[in-house]
Structure prediction request, 322 residues.
Amino acid sequence: MATALGVAPTRMELIKLRRRIALAQKGHDLLREKMDALIMEFFGILREIEDVRKNALESLSKAFGQLSICQAEIGTIETLQAAREMKRDVTLRIQTRYLMGVSVPHVEIDQDKKAPLPGYSIHGTSAVLDKATAAFVQALAHLVKLAELEAAAYALARELERTKRRVNALEHVLIPRLQQMIKFIQSRLDEIERENFTRLKRIKAILERRHQ
Amino acid sequence: MSLKIACIGDIDFISGFGLAGVSQLYLHERMEATLAKIRELFDNPEIGLIILPHRIASQISPELKELRRKKPVPLVLAVPDKSGWMPEVDELRELIKRTVGAEVVVRREE
Prediction:
């Protein structure tokens, strides 16, 4: 027992330890609550992802279908050429929001309103190209939303993991160790008390014998 | 602040996203070149989102994870390509399993 966990068996130390354990317990409870809240947020986002992903994948596969028709009609190279000539430049505005102290991105598409017409020449290209373009524009909107949600899910998951680790550290390492220290000090103090008691008894007996 | 979208993939992939208005298009040829390109995009503060097919993403997923951990932006999104191919192991599902400690199926209550 003299491994002693590095504490002196004094009453002062005992009081300090009790205080620490109360604090650790409080921290533990708070972190637990944070974890619960994070899990709720996380599931909210997962539910959203499920929907958005379904939409995104559907519109994307439709868009690829349109693209195949387009490539078949006007040629693969020509399609790529049209894609490269595209004037419309989709840009994103990314802001950070804070969810439970976790920064998650908030993404918005801001479409360039100045170039409503595609960059390829209308004359000399076919309607299938327009169709493919429209389908991909739609798919991209879904995909951007999906990217935002996935990034949020990853950020939350990382925070969740970190919180969980801290909760576990408190629960399984720090608090038990403090409890063990308290137990050690208490037993040591009891021991000292018993020693004193027997010593007094003994002294009393010796004194009495001397007086007789 | 407006950020650009970048897209890496085969010719069909970048044609499609090019039509949608993505300006940064890169044709995927060799893995090393693509990976270098992705690193470069990550260093470019003008890029907000990188779209690439699952087929590429699944081959360089350790590197992608590393990059993502370091910087929150650009976002990386892997999507199925023309063939609709998706990896067997859903990365997100894997993540849930690890963090929550159980397989979770999110179902909408009716």
Summary: Chain A has a mean pLDDT of 86. The beta strands of chain A are 91-99, 102-110.
